[in-house]
Every structure is written in C-alpha cells, then in structure tokens.
Amino acid sequence: MFATNKTHRRGVPSAKSRKPKKDDSASVTNIKSSATSTPATSISINGIDIHFPFQPYNVQHQYMSSVITALQASQHALLESPTGTGKTLCLLCSALAWQIREKSRMSVELEGIQSQQEGKADELAPGPDQSQDGSDGFSNHSVPRKKAPVIIYASRTHSQLSQVMGELRNTRYRPKHSILGSREHSCIHPKVNPIVAKGKGSPGVEPKTSTEVNNGCSKLCKERKCMFRNNLEDAQGKSGVWLPPTVQRADENKSFEQPVLDIEDLVALGKQHKICPFYHSRSHLKEAELILVPYNYLFDRDARETTLAEVDFSNAVLIFDEAHNLEEFASESSSFDLSSADIAGCISEVTRGVQLLEMNPETGDERCNKENLLRLKSMLINFESYLIEGISHRPGQKLSADAESSQPGEFIFDIFKEGLRVNGENKTLLIDLIQRLSDVVLEFKGTNTSGTPKLDHFVSCVKRAFGSGTYLLALARSKSYRVHISKVNRGGGFDTGRTISFWCFAPSLAMRELTFLNVRSILITSGTLSPLPSFSMELGLDFPVQLENDHVIKPDQIFVRVLGKGVSGKELSSKYGRRDDPEYIKELGDTLASLAGNIPAGVLVFFTSYGAMQTAIGRWGGPASGSNQSGGGRGASSFFAARRKKQAATPRYAFPQTNQHFAGPTNNTWQRLLSKKAIVIEPRSTSDLSDAIGEYKKFIALPKSNGAIMMGVCRGKISEGIDFTDDMARAVVVTGLPFAPYLDPKVKLKREFLDAARASAKSRPSTDGGFGSGDTKSLPRAPPKSLGGQEWYSQQAHRAVNQALGRVIRHRHDY
Prior knowledge:
Layout: E1 2-5, H1 32-35, E2 41-45, E3 48-52, H2 58-72, E4 77-80, H3 87-123, E5 151-155, H4 158-169, E6 177-179, H5 183-186, H6 194-197, H7 210-222, H8 227-236, H9 263-273, H10 277-282, E7 290-294, H11 296-299, H12 301-305, E8 317-320, H13 326-332, E9 336-339, H14 340-359, H15 370-388, E10 405-408, H16 411-420, H17 427-443, H18 453-466, H19 471-477, E11 481-489, E12 496-504, H20 508-515, E13 521-526, H21 532-539, E14 545-548, E15 559-562, H22 582-598, E16 602-607, H23 610-619, E17 654-655, H24 669-676, E18 678-681, H25 689-701, E19 708-713, E20 731-734, H26 745-762, H27 789-805
C-alpha cells in the first residue's frame, strides 16, 4: 500500500484562509498564493519578452524556455512538470508572448511587402490612356493580411478548460479567444436542457442525455424557434460578434478587449441577456487567437470539418494539457463497438422514418424516399441476423469456450461486406442516405423525436472503419487494429447478441492525422508523462524538445512511505490472490482508521477499481453491505445512484462524522472510520461529482471539524483534473497498484500487438540480396523503437498511481 502524508509546517496557510471560488471543485491551481510575495515581472527568453504575474521559479523559467524553443523552431515538445508547478500559467504566458512577437514580425514583413509594391506601382503609374483600376493588364494586387498562428489549447474535460480560463485571468494577456463546450454544458433552453437552464436540483428537473440535448437544439434552431439563438443573431449585427454591454466599442472596426469568461460565466451571461452561450462562443472562432477545446474536437474528423471549419490549422500550435492519457484517448477516438442491439435500434429508427414519410410524403427527396428506406431496413435486418448467427458459422473461424474470438483488423471489411453488402466503393451512398434520413426526422414538425442516435453511431462506425481515403489506405490502416467478437447475453430469456469491436492499438494514427493538417508544433504536457521515450514511441511523433522538471517544494513539505503491514502487523497486499481476502480488507480498514485519527483535515483514499472500493466498504459494514459484495453486477449500482431531493436529505455518497463514544470495540470498521472523519465516496455519475466535492468541502470547513475522507478510484473522476489544495488533502493513500485486468480481451490484444511490433522492429531485413556482405562482423543493433507489452502494462499502472498522488501538492506552499 502506498501512502503519502505531509509533515506539518508552522506558518503554512490553510484552505480556510483562502477566499472560496464559485466552484472550487474546478478551481485554478493556487499559484496565486505566491504571487502576493513578488510583483509582476517581465523576463526575456530567446529574445521574447514574457510578462509573468510574479517572479518565476527556476522550474517555471525552464518550462517556458522549452515552450519558446519548440515554437521558434516549429518542433514538437514533450513537457513533464509536477502538479503545482504552474504548467498552465507558464504555457499561456510563453505561448501568447511568442504569438504577440510573431504578429509583430508578420506586421513588419507585411509593411515591407506593401512598400515594395507601392514603389512598383509608382513606376508603373497609368498613362493618359490607361484606366485607374488596372484594366490595362496591370492589376492592383492587394497583399493578403495573414493572421498569426492560432493557438489551440485542448484538455480532457470542461472543468479543466475552466481552470485554464481562470489562469488566463491572472495574466496581462487578453487574446481574442473562444472556449468551446458541448450543448450539454452550455445550452440554456428550458425545454432542451432543463438541468442547466433551471439549475441542478430544481423541482421536477430531470437530466437529459447529450444526444437528446443535441437533437433538441438542432431541431429548434432549424425551425427558428430557439429564442436564445434568435436573440443572439439579432444582437450580433454587422460585426457578427455580440459583446456584453459592459464591453465598450465605439467603432465596429476597432479592436476590443474581450472579457475572459469560462463556460459557467458564459451560461450566466446567456441567462442574464437571453442569448445563446453555445453559439455565442462559436461566433468568436473566426477571429480567435486562442481556442480552448476538449480533446474530441481535435481527434474527431467531423468536428474538425464542421465546428472548427473556420479555423486555419496551417501553422497552428496545438497544446494538449493533462495529456498523461493522451495515447489512450487517441486510440479510443479511432475505435468503436457495434452490437446487435445497436443494429436493432437502427432498424427501429428507420421504421420510424418510414412512418414519418408515409404521414407526409413531401418531406423526403429523390434519395430519401420510402422505397430506399425499406431497402435500408432490409439490409439492417440481415446484418443483425448475421451478427447473431452468421458470423459464428464462418468457415475456419474458431470460437473460444466463452464465445469470443479475435481477428486481424482487415476482418472488419469482411463483416461489412458479407453482413451488410457494404464496401469501400458504396459506403458513401449508405452514409448519405442515413444522414438524409436523420435530417428528415429532425425537420419533421409536430414530433417529439429525439433524433436518430443509433443510426448516428452506426455511421460513425462505418466512417472509422473505412476512413476518408481509398480502400487500399483503409486496408493499410487496419494493420494497427484488431477485431474482437464477443457474445452478450441479454438476460431475461432473450436470445444472445454479439458485439463487434474494432480496436485501434496505434495512437500514432490519430496523432499523424493531426500533423497532416500542417500544424506548426504540438506541445504535450502533464505531470506524469515519464518515461518520455516510451510515451514518444506510442504517439509515433518526433519530439526534439523534451523536459522532465523538478518540483517547486522542499523535502520537508512531503513525507512518503510504503506500508507493507497494517496496525496489527498483518500484511497489506492487494495482489490478485488477496484482493478479496477478509483478513486483508479488515486490516486495511483498521489501518485507514488509525491514519485518519492522526492526519489533520482532508485525506484522499484511492482504490484500484470501483469493484474493489465497493467490496471493501461492504465488508467494513458500510452502505454497500446489502449489495453485491463482489463489486460487479447490477445490484450494487444503487449504492452509487444519484441523490434525489425528494429522497433522504443526506446524499448517499456523503456520511457525516459520528461521535467518538459510538466507536467502541464492538463497532464495525465503517463506524470506526466515521468516528475519525466524515466520509464522501466518489459517485459513478459525473453529474453528481460537483455535489460530492461540495459535501467534502463542507465537512472540512465545519467548525471544530476533524476533516473528511474522500474515497475514489485510480483513473477515476477525482484522480485528475481537480485541485485538492491545502486542507482539502493533507494525505493521499493508494491501496494498491491499479493494474488493468490481465486477461481482459482488450488488454491482452494490446500486449500482443506491442510485442509483435517490437519483434518486427528487432528483425532487420537483409540489404545484400542474400549473397552476404563479406563482413563477418555484425553491425551493432539499435535499441528497438517499440514499447513491449509488459512494459506498457506496468507503465499504465504506475502512471495512474502518480496521477493520484499528484492531487496532494498543488502549489509551492502546500504540504
């Protein structure tokens, strides 16, 4: 068991002395606490003046120097710097300072070109028989005004992007910017997205899925029935950009200082002025110098070609923050799972489309008509039957005892060809028909349709399988994929179904696709990237600029120990054979209770998985004791269910501290834990996370509070992207290495894929035509440029641990 605890230092400011932010669960890194000791300053790095809110530390100077070096040389960079060292602030200040210098350089060059052209124009001044407009053959070529390279700042979650905006406020830089979020976070129409429009917890408000929100918004906008978007378009005027009344701009042609607003601020502004925050933010895209987006906006081709269509990626700078899981995200963005249940949903949606066309035949067009839709329905019915029955009877295919099978990546084309009669030549016709049907369903008035989510998913699967190029290119890409066929029992007496998984194991495919956009530099940063060589191998890019930074804290601010034995001397080992051992679980609980009684304020406890956490809490006598003790199945899910106002007043994931005298020798482990501190458990639902964090803070801030314990999961919601500053976390306990399930099909195939790639890299083809070189001395072999399967497996677990431990030190004075 890994445990971290910080020794107490006198004079260190506590969390209670800080002014709380509106949502401290996503607060910016508390680097501002040190800004009060030194005034704002300017430093020069490689000839570029960088304004910084305070005198930077050495590690911050090194970080900014690496950023400037990469940008000036148009190179990619891997930048690792521990949490709490101000990565975001350094990135913004250095990148924006470089951008300003680049704008100045381009302006000087432009003036020079214009002066030269004006001189030539004087030499070629029109005579008395020539027109002033150059119609004699000498045209007045105007020099195109080029923009400086746009900076696209990407992070994993919306809350992390809000942190970036918070740091931007701390600087003197005010670039034209746009922060993009999903409709689920920024739509304020009460019928489309009531949970944002009316506020979470309002009576009668039920959250809607992202698909329902997207389709509802699209439908209202197409019918011109969204008051908020209509108000925005009316207020934008000729400039195309609406500004709040507080922003003064006398002339539409003059520049203005755009206020720095995160998504929450935009939502509040939208509610105040009755304008749409979602489209308001997008109206700034064309002129934006800084664009903040979630990862998927860059990796999703459709998003790049629609939402970011006005963005000039040529010579752009891409920044990936919190990128410790970037290779996993890149792989997932190119993969898909398609089940027979999904196809059944597609059939239902096509049937609904046929019914709509029968009600109003004029709605369709020459392609999207009843006859073609019935053909599409027949194809999908045959495909569903093929997935359930036909695919298991393919000649030569061997199904394992549990009805699972893995095949090479190119097998996906056989599935689409034999089951659906779709190939590289006719896939475009299928996609076009389905997209026309989706438009018809959304445009059909008088219906409460939620769109065609299953058909949309099916189209995305076809696009990912075949790509946007030729069939030969798709066939070459498939070498980096594996097809996995699994059998799913629906239960309840229903027939079994199948899921076809098309898994990408080479994140380099997605990364190289970004380089094909002719971007200038890709900067990848996080607190846990090491080892950098293997990370670079996975992404398949050359990173000439690499940095592994030290921390800003002193040795006496942190205390780290590995506890091999618990309070009663029994072994603490969470390896597979002992994970469910009652003796180990009891010893773990007793040890945590002892630590909680000696550590002030907040303590974070991370388990290896939700199942492990659920099992432990149940064995300790906690709220999961009546659920499935194994941590799996549906029976335990009620423990993590979202709190409803009409139910108990206390959330199911929050448990206040009990009085000390209740924790006698006959009480269970859970009661002993509660006698030391209040307990908050990480909810499975993302929508409940902010409430859980709020309860945790409330317990810590109570008068005479002994603090609280926050229990979560490595790789979970609280293990990254949230600042547990100062008293929010005076210790972190990690209850074991979070290795992925070794025999999980995806993990197994990934290890096999990497081992095969390494073996291929080791074998060097002969260059002598088989006749021998005549040299008996063998040439030295370079180390393999590929990561082995076991190395990858181990690194993933250790990176997850490092990320969890990083929650504890958030600024220079933290301890």
